[in-house]
Amino acid sequence: MKLQPRQQLLELWEAAARASYRDGVWAWGGRDGSNSISDAEQLLCFMYPASELPGFRLDTPDETADDVLAALSVLGDSVEIPKLLLKVIGQYLRTYTADDGRPLFSGGSYFRSVDDETKVTPEQLQLDVVDSFSMSVTLALGTLGFLKVFRQSVRRESIRREIRELEDLASKRLSAAMAGLLRSFTVNAFDPGSTAGRALLRTVNQTGAPDRRVLDDLRRELRPVRAGLRDLTIGSGSQVDLDNENLLFECGWTWGIVKDAPDIVTPLDIGPQPKGVAADTPFLYFTVNALVGIADLFSARTRVLSLLNDDQITLAQAIQRRWDLTQSYWRTIATYGRGTWPLEDIPWRTVDEKESDYYSLGVTAMVVQSLVNNRAADVDLGRVAAVLEELAVRARIIRRAVPGDPPVLMHSPGVPINLHGSDVLGPHLVWVVSDFAITLLKRTIWAASIAQNTRMRERLLALADQIWRHIMLRRHTDGPAAGLWDQPGNVFSDIQVRDEEPSWYFSERVVEFLVSAATSSGEPPLRSPQLVELALQMLGEAEHLLDQELVTRPLVGGQTIQPKLRSIQASLQRARAIVSDRPATAQALINDALLGLERLAAARDSASEAI
Which NCBIfam families does this entry report, sorted A to Z (predicted)? Predict the structure, then answer.
């Protein structure tokens, strides 16, 4: 891949530090103002790489890399940077904690009224939203890991006291976010003859088979998911009666806490649990975002650093069950049948009969995540790759847009998502999402990371390169946001809006992609079985020729030929050690050894002829 993730992350850090720290003061908020999600995204631009990539660590001042210090020089030196992060993390955690001690997960300025002339009410601005739960899980885990390691480098009691206080606040926010995710999960059951039932059957039936046969087959395919959902005991989604197998259903996360969701019974201190108003139906966008944040709960880093206590582990296990069931459900629906997958029938149609390429991207994201977890075969991956390529074309990311092109609206102003249930406190709210390009890129690099053959990986990396070029053109080129995102008017002539401040929403997702790319590049190269077999055959020939040389010329001290034979012997030993993991490199070593052996044989033959 032409991308250089370390260099790009350093450039992004430099731009983010310059935009965030102005005149010695941390500047919260960006293009969309300050709220619990945007501010978390701003912090995660720094905390996520520092948590996930060893070369970007900031919690051990003596080990901070020189290029990292150069990129963050605006924030101070290796000692001052973690102290500043300590300060701003404390500001965030205290700002989004209510007077009664309850962590706040409000959408704030991200909420929009469906009618531009009607203002969002103060009560609506304070509504909890799933995006905040998900971001808070990632940020809280990153914060706890940072504090646990940084504490070992601190001697001053005042700083150690601040660290202990922030650990308590971050742990409480993590617990409350997990409780919020449990209260936002939903199962929507409906009759096959209803509007939703007919829409779902129409989506999965790609071959024109009789509906009765499709319905029976779909019920059989979803039986394990149905059984798992019936066994849920805490949180929302557990009250739906799924014993009637005649009903179809869908599962996932709605946009906020479900209306009438029961409180979570836990010994953890999470403060009062607010009442919910969100409609009891899953939303693709919020389901995908929930799954991304939840994955951090059971990552290797979370386990190694023991970031969860026993009571939090209980909540995490309940969430993981929903994570597994949701992925299984959507993969079953998206890849149903033996012919064309429903996923391949773009655009995706939801059960409320709405269609959008963005919905196709959401379902693709869940399928890719499922493939990553299951290390699926390249046959399935090839079909997903074709969907990703078509979405890139349809969204005018790797094709030129013409004036008045409708797909441009997905990038700006974005796709509005109706927040059903929000109108009980004021005007009907919408949630506008404009991350199509970067989300597509993230899924592409995820898919490339599990490709089992070189051709498939090259296909996906070539697509990722094209999308990355598009995204690079959307960076701000001047002003306080220079080097950050998002300025889609740089690419699409129809977009006249020019923003001065950065979108932390978009920039943080670029950070997530770059971290994924850096992690993927650290994986061992693909291993071709055919290449391994060829290398082993070459190695056998080379070792046999070397044995012949050793019989003819034993390694006796003082011989001028001795260093050459020892070098050849060492090369072949190295080749045998790495042939299973790096067959091409092994072949290069074997080729050099064979050339050396051939020169010795040719020299011996020439000497014999001269005699």
Answer: SCO2524_fam (NF040567)
Nearest to 130 by CA among 433, 341, 374: 433
Q: What is the 3-state secondary structure (H, E, C) of 191-204?
A: CCCCHHHHHHHHHH
Torsion of CA 259, 264, 270, 275, to 10 degrees: 20
pLDDT of residue 561: 64
Residue 259 neighbours by CB under 8 Å, 6+ apart: 275, 276, 277, 278, 279, 280, 421
How many CA atoms, within 13 angstroms, populate the side-chain half-sphere of residue 485? 26
Percent composition of the chain: helix, strand, coil (DSSP 3-state, to 5): 60, 5, 35
Alpha carbons 466 and 445: distance in angstroms, whole number:
12
Name every residue whose Cβ is closer than 8 Å to that of residue 351 and which is 6 or more positions away in sequence.
188, 190, 195, 196, 197, 199, 200, 250
pLDDT computed for residue 339 by the predictor: 85
Mean pLDDT of 207-214: 90
Tell me how many degrees the CA angle 456-462-467 measures, rounded to the nearest 5: 130
Cis peptide, bond prior to residue 486, ω within 30 of zero: yes
CB 56 within 8 A of CB 142: no
**Closest of 351, 347, 178, 366 to residue 286, by C-alpha:** 366
Tell me how far CA of residue 316 lies from CA of 34, 143, 230, 323, in angstroms: 29, 18, 18, 10
- Helix axis angle for 284-295 and 157-184, nearest 10°, is 140
pTM recorded for the entire structure: 0.88
Residue range 43-95, pLDDT digits in tens: 999 999 999 999 999 999 999 999 999 999 999 999 999 999 999 999 999 99
Mean pLDDT, to the nearest integer, of 548-557? Answer: 67
**Two tokens at 371?**
């493939």
- Number of residues in the chain: 611
Q: Residues 232, 236, 238, 243: what is their CA dihedral angle, to the nearest 10 degrees? A: -130
Structure token digits, residue 208: 């024109």
DSSP line for 343-400: GGSSSEE-TTS-EEHHHHHHHHHHHHHHHHHHT--HHHHHHHHHHHHHHHHHTTSSS-
Rounding to the nearest 10 degrees, give the CA dihedral for residues 71, 76, 77, 81.
Answer: -90
**pLDDT confidence bin for 42, thresholds 50/70/90:** very high
Burial class (CB in 10 A: 0-12, 13-18, 19+), 214: buried
pLDDT at 346 (0 to 100): 93
Judged by average pLDDT, the poorest of 110-119, 143-152, 500-509, 542-551 is: 542-551
Q: Which two tokens stand for residue 163?
A: 């660290």
Between 562-578 and 529-552, two packed helices, what is the crossing angle to 10 degrees?
Answer: 160
Q: How many CB atoms lie within 10 A of CB 552?
A: 11
